[in-house]
Amino acid sequence: MSVPSSLADTASTLTSAQAYHDESVDGTDALQVEKRYGEERAKRLRDDGVEQFVDISLSDKFRHFEEDPWVDPAAVKDTRTMFPHNRCQMLILGGGFGGLLYAVRMIQAGIRPEDIRIVDPAGGFGGTWYYNRYPGLTCDIESYCYLPLLEETGYVPKHRYSSGEEIRNYANLVAEKWNFAGSAVFCTKAEKLVWDEATKEWQVKLIQKRKGVLPQTLNIHARFMATVNGVLHWPKLPGLPGIPDFQGEIFHSARWDYSITGGSQDDPSLTKLKDKRVAIIGTGASAVQIVPHLARWAKHLYVVQRTPSAVDRRDQRETDPEWFQKEVATSTGWQRERLRNFHQHFTTEKQPAINLVDDQWTHAIGLAAIAGNSAGPKSMEELPAYIKLLNNIDLPRQNQIRARVDQVVTDPAIAKKLKAWYPSWCKRPCFHDEYLSSFNQGNVTLIDTDGKGLDRLTADSIVVGDESYPVDVIIFATGFRSPYGGTPAEKANLTITGRNGLSMTQQWERNGPATLHGVLDHNFPNLFLSGPWQASASPNYLFNLDALGKHAAYILAEAKRKADGKAFAVASTAAATEDWAMQVLMRAAPMGAIIGCTPSYINLEGGIDRVPPEAQMIMARSGFWGHGIEDFLTHIEAWRAEGNMQGIDVQV
Predict the structure, then answer these.
(1) Backbone phi, then psi, for 18, in 5-degree steps?
(2) What percent of the chain has pLDDT over 90?
(3) Residue 335 neighbours by CB distance under 10 Å
(4) Does pLDDT of 132 surpass 90?
(5) Contact in structure between 523 and 498 (CB atoms under 8 Å)
(6) Where in the chain are the domains?
(7) Distance CA 383, CA 621 (A)
(8) For residues 364 and 140, what is the distance between their CA atoms, to the nearest angstrom?
(9) Is the pLDDT of residue 161 over 90?
(10) Which helix (H) or strand (E) holds 185?
């Protein structure tokens, strides 16, 4: 596979390559749209990239923004009582759905629930659904696809799109059903993992922090580990001057403070805001759901926008149980088939004859750019033509979304500012039925910063350019650390040291991951990973995690059988990891469509465009399986069917 001399060169040529034709597409001149896309992107590019944000978890100055408002200290077990003899067989890092799914699949593969421990800094199960409890919180993926294990649990989601509260309760249901609810070690974080070659196990340093109790450090040994630490869980703030100077109420949307706003997640009556001037910073997926509730209750609401979201219809509705049984849960394996059909819509090839989900995701075919596409380019030289094709497919949809703004928002000047000028795949699409109409209310002011963001805060105001807006409450809906940078160590804010004293951070930075199928790295035995590196992606991220959880559980079960009761180390072989990296590289070209995108967490705020030439091959070898998740599953399922654990080394 050939790679261009630099991704920056590729990005700079995309304007001409994407000038796909002079004809009118759906009433809009494609060349003019492309020109506008480039202009809007240029406004938002910054030399500091992801460094423009403050990572709350890494900042002593701002760490109070991530304090857990939901934890019940009395319900959290003492870490020391959870590890008899300071040992456990399987230690899972992460109590979100990824950790739950890995636990379920390991139990199904033969590990006893009592031999599992799940460590999480939170006070309960759910991951991002534990922390995020803001008003209006709803999953944007259809619940019949998103909630895993529906066939096994028999659970019927209450709505087409589940609320955050329902999802969090469902996480607890899963833990109870598979009998590992008592295996959780909450308010506890792993700080350091070190591989012990002599004993073939991991030495783990844990720190538990409970309110009103001195931090406790515990050093344990774990035979097997899984890092399932989520993708959107470390909140970030814009690097603004004056945040500590603000004298009003201030918090991040991922730590919603109902003591300030009034109400609760199940009753979002934000009565304490009736006499308050409120500013919400950000207009991404969280803000799109929050704004209608703030607009309903605040005396005045300022919505501070840097980049508008592309907001399509959501079409929420309650689930009719009779309809669900007759039309959805029709036969054994229904959820897998529904998800397969969902994924089959992200391709530039012919769409399936039947659309089982039929939501706005499945009509956004351009998202093949980030979901992977087996019909995509086979080399980087073919990438410009592929982007041209994607734009041809995508432009009618984006035109319709921009037209929807005009249909809903009554003030043409405001409507103009709310229109998204970038392809569907450059930022996570949004879906809501009330967000746009909120800007028709007299108590709502859109502060569009034309791509620049806020300038600073003062003791009582937000400042944009020469304009100062006095406010009483500031809510940062500014998102999370990008899930696509760093290693599993950085994702969990810990250090991982493997064979021969190798640091995962240094090894991956120098050479990239050395995994087979994205779940086992040659240099880090008995440590099961959860992607996305050298694995695949779906808009429904939980499906990715479950697929890898099944694969990891299969490998562990087969390794235990081979070891025949002896202590063992299981890892991928060097030859197999090199072959897999080349397989990923050969399929990398379709993922190159994000080059030239508007800055967002998807492209590391534009940083991917600036990757130096010497790092580009590593990036291509380390990235997603570019032919899509169904193609990825075909490969790993065929590997399992062979039954010989090709490429896996089990040492006793």
Answers:
(1) -90, 0
(2) 89
(3) 19
(4) yes
(5) yes
(6) 76-233+482-588+623-651
(7) 17
(8) 14
(9) yes
(10) strand 184-186
Q: In Å, how far from its chain's centre is CA 458?
A: 33
Distance from C-alpha of 22 to C-alpha of 30, rounded to nearest angstrom: 7
Q: Does the structure show a pLDDT above 70 at 16?
A: no
CB within 8 Å of 561: residues ≥ 6 apart: none
Confidence band for 317, pLDDT divided at 50, 70 and 90: very high
The two tokens of residue 628 are 């899509």
CATH top-level class of 76-233+482-588+623-651 = alpha beta
pLDDT tens across 92-127, in order?
999 999 999 999 999 999 999 999 999 999 999 999
Beta bridge partners of residue 300, listed in sequence order: 277
Q: Is 126 left (phi over 0), alpha (psi -120 to 50) or beta?
A: left
Could you identify the residue written with the tokens 């607890």?
172
Q: Give the H/E segment covering residue 614.
A: helix 613-622
Give how far the C-alpha of residue 622 lies from the chain's centroid of Cα atoms, to the nearest Å.
18
3-state secondary structure 519-578: CEECCCCCEECCCCCCCCCCCCHHHHHHHHHHHHHHHHHHHHHHHCCCCCEEEECHHHHH
Token code pair at residue 321: 């149980």
For tokens 């109420």, the residue is: 249
Pick from 370, 578, 402, 492: nearest CA to 37: 402
pLDDT of residue 28: 56
